[in-house]
Design brief:
- The protein is 83% helix and 0% strand.
- With 122 residues, the chain is mainly alpha-helical.
- The protein has one domain.
- α3 crosses α4 and α3 packs antiparallel against α5.
- It is elongated, with a radius of gyration of 21 Å.
Length: 122
């Protein structure tokens, strides 16, 4: 498996930005990782805030916290989310992931060409 394919697979299978880090494109890789973590954090923050608001309105009674009650609370929180906000963040995260896979593959191809080209000219 060549360098370009490995870098693209790191992005596709592990996390956006890992392929760039693998290719030693640290600034670009860290920027992509930070953007992805910010998107995930934003989604989680929205869920937590919605859950807190639901619990303020209808708190659990003592002794009634069961697994089923927590699952119901999580489902209610997700239903109460602003779906446009959620889908917008997910859309940009998917675009970023696709960009990072393509960029890592192209950067890997360029890296291969730059190491092979000097040997051919000698």
């Amino acid at each position: 498996m060549n360098l370009a394919t490995k870098a693209a697979l790191f992005n596709a299978l592990l996390f956006p930005g890992w392929g760039q880090v693998y290719l030693k494109k640290y600034k670009k890789g860290i920027l992509i990782i930070i953007a992805t973590v910010a998107g995930v954090s934003s989604i989680l923050w929205s869920v937590v805030q919605t859950t807190i608001n639901i619990l303020k309105i209808a708190p659990f009674k003592k002794g009634t916290v069961t697994f089923e009650a927590v699952v119901k609370l999580a489902i209610d929180s997700i239903k109460a989310l602003n779906l446009f906000h959620l889908f917008l963040i997910l859309f940009f995260m998917i675009l970023l992931w696709i960009f990072s896979i393509i960029d890592a593959y192209i950067s890997g191809k360029k890296e291969i060409q730059s190491t092979v080209a000097p040997k051919e000219s000698i």
